Amino acid sequence: MARVNSRIKAVSILTLQPPESPVPAPALPAQSVNAPVFVPKTPIPHPASPAPVASQYYQSQSSSSSSSGAIDPTAAAAELRDDNDPVVAANANAVAAVAAVTPAKEFIPFEPYGMAESMPVPEGSMMSPYANPYAAQDQAQMLEYDAQGADLFYSTSPSFVRQPLQYHLYTQPRPEDLQPRFFVPDDIREELQQRAENIHTAPAPGLGLPEELQGYHSLIPLEPVTGERRKFGNWYSAVYRATKASDGLPYVLRRIENFRLKDVEAFSTILAWRRIQHPNIISVREAFTTSAFGDASLVVVYDYHPNSTTLSEVHVRSKQPQATSGRGSRSQDRIPEQNLLSYIVQIASAVKAVHDAGLSLRIIDATKILITGKNRVRVGSCGVVDVLMYEAHQDMASLQQEDLTMFGKLILALCCHHPGAPYNPQKALEQINRYYSVEVKQIALFLMGKPNVPQGKKAIDQIVDMLSRQSIKKVEEAHSAVDRLEAGLMSELENGRLVRLLCKFGFINERPEFALDPRWSETGDRYIIKLFRDYVFHQVDEHGRPVVNLSHVLTCLNKLDAGTDERIMLVSRDEQSCLVVTYKEVKSCIESAFNELGTAAAS
């Protein structure tokens, strides 16, 4: 036994001697030695290579233990024995000697999740603290996506649930006194971020759309691709959003299927529409024909307005209105008169701009007018009918008269919430007389009725005169909205100063080395900057809890940017020293340190 012990001691001294290397081995804590070996649930393929002696040992023991449940120490020593290596042979002899006096024990693999059933579950807990996250019965549950609610476009691959966008970037409630001075109002921020998110939506695969179309790529349908197909007059039509390769901006492509252009001069009307720039008209960019969809298609390109919807989807119902049965529609379904008059004023302004340019809209329908903002409407699909009906040379004056008639039909459809209301004008006018003012009724009667003027023609200028009082109100509302947006822009503009200050903090604080001085950021003026950083961001209350106060941060940074003479006390982290300085002095320290860095960077 003494001989065995001496051999074990000699082997231990030999094997524990550190390797001769200039790089010291990192020390491991005691807990890491006894930590269980991570075994992945899915086998990982490895390239075929000769396994070392130790690997062969563990492979053989794992296969034998799975059948017998015990490890043979003598076999382990035999596996480790290598007569050509005296160190390995000595280790094997030592293991065999210890195994002779140690009883064999059954090998029980460590399973941390197997103790979940035997461990007590705390009261009120939803699951065991040792629950196995890989033991989900459904793979969709483990991957955290809803297989039933997946997008139909992703039928062959799992569609992961998209996390909602955090529109407000602040973790704590913002103080009320900071709202009008430092941040854009929440409703404007949310709307703008929703639009930006919509613009960067990725196209869905498997739709069979062309990858490139006359310089446009990443086509995304803006209308349902299933169900009843939509028509534009007598032609089937589809609307896509695409990105132009030359400028990277999104545009809308309206495609007219199975249309063969017989005369290239039809595109001359598109050139006339490009010259019209109006806030209530969706601008026309260009038009072209293509066979990329497998047929001869006409494509007209427009500006893209994200998160917009049509008047038909918001205000026009597909079912029969209650007005036809002698009853009025419900009050919650009616468009407020101020909103209705706002729509009428904006559409009248668009019609006047088109008629003054010597053109005609030729289609004024609730499905072709978009709501792009709060009570903001834009007339779309301009120029398409001019190309489709180019060969039918019609008088422009008669076409402009048809525009006014379609305008009146649109007002009836909006007032009655049904596209068939213009076909029963008597009932529609009764409902208008019941729920709206005389002004709305007079406008609808003028547009729908026969002209009562010496020339025998209606003109959009007459509608503009009838809307003069409402137009003044809408101009006032537009100016108020501009003032609100400018105020929000100014508040965010001021925040740019604070970002520059924070960038300077980031360049200076905790810099590892500068000018061969590893303690540059901890000495001189930089030490004051470090203490000021702790004063602004690392304060704690009397209970030692961190103070997360946005008001304090903004107040300190603005005083620092202004360089006020207000004094503050900066305390070191060990509370052994304190400094009384002014914001002006701290600002001078920051400028000096930052200029020093800038000078070194430019040299």
TrEMBL record:
Subunit structure, interactors included: Homodimer. Forms a heterotrimer with a catalytic subunit PAN2 to form the poly(A)-nuclease (PAN) deadenylation complex. Interacts (via PAM-2 motif) with poly(A)-binding protein PAB1 (via PABC domain), conferring substrate specificity of the enzyme complex.
Protein kinase domain location: 225-555
Segments for region (Disordered): 38-73, 313-333
Indicate which residues the UniProt annotation says bind ATP. 254, 303-310, 367-368
Its name, as the record gives it, is PAN2-PAN3 deadenylation complex subunit PAN3
Q: What is known of its domains?
A: The N-terminal zinc finger binds to poly(A) RNA. Contains a pseudokinase domain. The protein kinase domain is predicted to be catalytically inactive because some of the residues important for catalytic activity are substituted and it lacks the equivalent of the binding site for a peptide substrate. However, it has retained an ATP-binding site and ATP-binding is required for mRNA degradation, stimulating the activity of the PAN2 nuclease in vitro.
Locate the compositionally biased regions of type Polar residues. Answer: 319-329
Q: Spell out the subcellular localization from the entry.
A: Cytoplasm
PANTHER family assigned: DEADENYLATION COMPLEX SUBUNIT PAN3 (PTHR12272), PAN2-PAN3 DEADENYLATION COMPLEX SUBUNIT PAN3 (PTHR12272:SF11)
Chain's role:
Regulatory subunit of the poly(A)-nuclease (PAN) deadenylation complex, one of two cytoplasmic mRNA deadenylases involved in mRNA turnover. PAN specifically shortens poly(A) tails of RNA and the activity is stimulated by poly(A)-binding protein PAB1. PAN deadenylation is followed by rapid degradation of the shortened mRNA tails by the CCR4-NOT complex. Deadenylated mRNAs are then degraded by two alternative mechanisms, namely exosome-mediated 3'-5' exonucleolytic degradation, or deadenlyation-dependent mRNA decaping and subsequent 5'-3' exonucleolytic degradation by XRN1.
* Annotated signal peptide: none
Q: Which UniProt keywords apply?
A: ATP-binding, Coiled coil, Cytoplasm, mRNA processing, Nucleotide-binding
* Source organism of the structure: Somion occarium
What family is this protein classified in? Answer: Belongs to the protein kinase superfamily. PAN3 family.
Ranges of Low complexity composition bias in the record: 55-68
Q: PROSITE patterns, alphabetically?
A: PROTEIN_KINASE_DOM
